[in-house]
Design goal:
Elements lengths: L1 E5 L2 E3 L7 E2 L4 E2 L6 E3 L1 H17 L2 E8 L4 H10 L3 E6 L5 H14 L4 E5 L10 H9 L3 E10 L3 E8 L2 E8 L2 E5 L11 H7 L4 E5 L29 H11 L4
Parallel strand pairs: 1-6, 1-8, 6-7, 7-13, 8-12, 9-12
Antiparallel strand pairs: 2-5, 3-4, 9-10, 10-11
Helix pairs in contact: 2-5, 3-4
Bound molecules: flavin-adenine dinucleotide.
Length: 245
């Protein structure tokens, strides 16, 4: 089985976010980038599936050259090879279109994504990709198995769970709880240096949306400490100042 795992390169969750150009551009300076946590899950599960029943796992990122150290980390986790579509994506439609081209030409059986990227939180690439490929999509999977012809996945639904299956090729997106993310070991890190990382040019030109400005949430007000013995003061504050009841 040939699995393609989509990897979005995102700022570390502890990053202090700032903007430039009149708050219209994200400021990358000094930012530590990581594999999108949901993509770490889909990559780990892809590796588990191919280790159990054979096959290869390729990773794909649509991004600039500075994403390569993070792509190497995906290779260190165990991916066979990597594709970087050389582009500066600004839109989920654009990203999906680039990945669709590679998924088709590489004749993959299964494409895995995360449920969303934790930077722009679009949650849209997987749906757009499935539509462009005309493949079925199972979204936000918490369990995933696949054999040569079929994929089976479980999802949490309101008040329960559902299990679905569909014929390959298909797209599946990962939700938390899919598996424990794999941490690269020293051997993996050494091997990753010589694994193929193929850089391909962007082809499709979908740039439907662009961000005009960003705004940070208001700064949190300071914490007011209340003596544990003064519960009445706490109740009064919650009632008259915070208006919680
Ligand atoms: C410096 C910088 C500036 C950016 N500026 C913008 C911007 O202005 N507007 C904007 O929308 N985005 C911007 N991005 C983010 C990037 O373009 C996103 O990949 C794209 O917008 C999709 O985001 P999303 O939230 O819709 O993805 P989602 O739909 O939430 O992602 C779902 C899944 O799709 C896959 N995926 C998403 N993106 C990629 C990718 N690039 N490569 C491979 N797989 C992917 C992953 O598996 C992910 O889990 C920027 C990124 C950087 C590093």
């Amino acid at each position: 089985m040939k699995i393609l795992v989509c990897v979005s390169v995102v700022p570390d969750t502890t990053t202090k976010i700032t903007f430039t150009d009149n708050d219209s551009q994200f400021n990358k300076a000094g930012v530590q980038f990581i594999i999108n946590p949901y993509d770490e899950l889909s990559l780990t599960r892809a590796l588990e599936i191919t280790e159990a029943s054979g096959g290869t796992v390729s990773v794909i990122t649509v991004g600039e050259a500075d994403t390569e150290p993070v792509i190497r980390k995906a290779l260190a986790m165990g991916a066979t090879d990597a594709i970087r579509v050389d582009a500066s994506p600004k839109d989920g439609m654009y990203v999906a279109a680039q990945i669709a081209v590679q998924a088709k030409s590489g004749e993959y059986d299964l494409v895995l994504t995360g449920r969303e990227s934790i930077d722009y939180n679009g949650g849209q690439v997987q749906g757009l990709l499935a539509e462009m490929l005309n493949w079925p999509l199972i979204n936000v999977a918490t369990e995933l198995d696949a054999d040569a012809s079929t994929v089976k996945a479980t999802r949490d639904i309101d008040g329960g769970r559902e299990t679905l299956s569909c014929a390959l090729p298909a797209v599946v997106s990962a939700q938390k709880d899919l598996c424990e993310p794999r941490i690269p070991n020293m051997r993996g890190i050494m091997m990753a240096r010589s694994k193929p990382l193929n850089v391909v040019p962007a082809t499709e030109k979908y740039d439907y949306t662009s961000i005009t400005s960003y705004e940070l949430p208001p700064a949190k007000s300071g914490v007011k400490m209340i003596d544990a013995a003064k519960a009445e003061e706490l109740m009064d504050l919650l009632h008259s100042t915070e208006k919680l009841f």
